[in-house]
Amino acid sequence: MAKFSKSTVPQFSVDVYQNEFLPEGGRDVSAIVTVTSTGGGTGGLRSLAPAGIGAAGVVIMVDCSGSMDYPSTKMRGAREATAAAVDTLRDGTSFAVVAGTHVAKEVYPGNGRLAVADARTRAEAKESLRRLSAGGGTAIGTWLRLADRLLSSAELTIRHGILLTDGRNEHESPEELRAALDSCAGRFTCDARGVGTDWEVKEVTGIASALLGTADIVADPSALADDFTTMMEKAMGKGVADVALRLWTPVGVEIAFVKQVAPTVEDLTGRRTEAGPRAGDYPTGSWGDESRDYHVSVRVPQAVVGQEMLAARVSLIAPDPLGGDPKPLSQGLVRAVWTDDLAMSTSINPQVAHYTGQAELADVIQQGLDARKSGDHDGATAKLGRAVQLAAASGNADTAKLLSKVVDVVDAATGTVRLKAKVAEADEMTLETRSTKTVRVKR
Questions:
Q1: How far apart are CA 387 and CA 384, in angstroms?
Q2: CB 171 within 8 A of CB 139
Q3: Which residues 6+ apart lie within 8 Å of 175 measured at CB?
């Protein structure tokens, strides 16, 4: 592990949980990699940077389309939530507020720049929120591109966005939104929230996924202020940005997938960027004091009993604020050992089993809800029944509670359920939005 002072850099640790034993000829190796960061919530790597470089920056994007006036509580809630988020900004944080319609407009401070948070600028920003009014369409890609321009206008280490919308992205094509997300990916992270029930879940979750943030529903506008405050507090707790999970594999080893599995399921396999011979980086975004779990699955060459090999080396990599080579923060090893002991080779590691089930849970919820929307009641019942069974078996009480608002549970252990005849739209959207949230394995 790289030797840095605890007072200047967050400490990352990597723990690997796996059953390394394979039967003769066995090829599939799975491991759960737990990454924990401590001590990075207030300074982090930016303290190594020259003076004036490495502050945090946040852009708040507020939907001001015409639908935000129906009901008027949405616009009022958005103003109050933005004011609460501004109040939560730590002194010295760079920030801006953007009003989003079919175009994106700077609300504060303006002129293509960011303000620096202190008592005066926070008061000015909150006063400027009076200018937020509803009218116009929705083109979220333009909001994201403006946020990117603003965040790139200053030397920042932590770059973050908070986006609120209440409707569908009707004034630009899906391709235009995708192009904006591709342009912004890796440049800043973004939390996305849908208020009310007239927005598209897959749009909002897709934005958060592409920009390595969180997504959620705020069905009642009166709850926006608390939600925005919590989001901003977490953003203020980030100490190091652009951390990558680097996976090195020997010759002959194939990567099946790399997924984040806690606190949410996020498939990172397709986001790999090459990082030298047989090595690739998978983005993880910004970190504070927190722990996350990743599922790494590889295929090794066939071997005979008694052989062993290093199947993969997992490292945490962060950029050097001074412009040097990326900093290795910690690493763990994934091994493969061939044995003729049947009990050893057939044992499933508890962590791997747990997160395999959590990933399946997220999948079957999405499949069940899609089947329900398309009128396939038998398919919906089967998939949502399996979801109830998985949630009960893994102790995912929050998801089990959300499922109970969509189905009547006859027997959770067997996954026997009946679809409810009537389901509140907010309940169905909440289940869909939060379907990827997981519970940590009990160790």
A1: 5
A2: yes
A3: none
Q: Write the pLDDT tens digit of every residue in 374-394.
A: 999 999 999 999 999 999 999
Is this prediction's pTM over 0.90?
yes
How far apart (Å, rounded) are the C-alpha atoms in residues 441 and 443?
6
* SS3 of the chain: CCCCCCCCCCEEEEEEEECCEECCCCCEEEEEEEEEEECCCCCHHHHHCCCCCCEEEEEEEEECCHHHHCCCHHHHHHHHHHHHHHHHCCCCCEEEEEEECCCEEEEECCCCCCEECCHHHHHHHHHHHHHCCCCCCCCHHHHHHHHHHHHCCCCEEEEEEEEEECCCCCCCCHHHHHHHHHHHCCCCEEEEEEECCCCCHHHHHHHHHHCCCCEEEECCHHHHHHHHHHHHHHHHCCCEEEEEEEEECCCCCEEEEEEEEECECEECHHHCEECCCCEEEEEEEEECCEEEEEEEEEECCCCCCCCEEEEEEEEEEECCCCCCCCEEEEEEEEEEEECCCHHHHHCCCHHHHHHHHHHHHHHHHHHHHHHHHCCCHHHHHHHHHHHHHHHHHHCCHHHHHHHCCCEEEEECCCCEEEECCCCCHHHHHHHHHCCCECCCCCC
Residues 259, 270: Cα–Cα separation, whole Å: 10
In the structure encoding, which two tokens stand for residue 383, read together?
A: 């998939």
* Token pair belonging to 23: 């039967």
At residue 268's C-alpha, the angle toward residues 266 and 273, to 5°, is 155
- Give residue-wise pLDDT tens across range 271-284: 999 999 999 999 99
| Residue found under tokens 């904006």 | 180
| Res. 149: pLDDT tops 70 | yes
**How far is Cα 401 from Cα 84, in angstroms, rounded to an integer?**
29
Q: Using alpha carbons only, how large is the chain's radius of gyration in Å?
A: 23
Write phi, then psi, for 39 (nearest 5 degrees).
80, 15
Give me the phi and psi of 256, to 5 degrees please. Answer: -80, -50
Beta carbons of 189 and 161 less than 8 angstroms apart: yes
Dihedral angle, C-alpha 302, 304, 308, 313, nearest 10 °: 0
DSSP-assigned beta bridge partners for residue 100? 63, 104
Report whether 343 contacts 349 (CB < 8 A).
Answer: no
Single out the residue of 18, 20, 13 nearest to residue 34, CA to CA. 13
Average pLDDT over residues 51-69: 84
| Size of the chain in residues | 443
Residues with Cβ within 8 Å of residue 308, at least 6 apart in sequence:
20, 335, 336, 337, 338
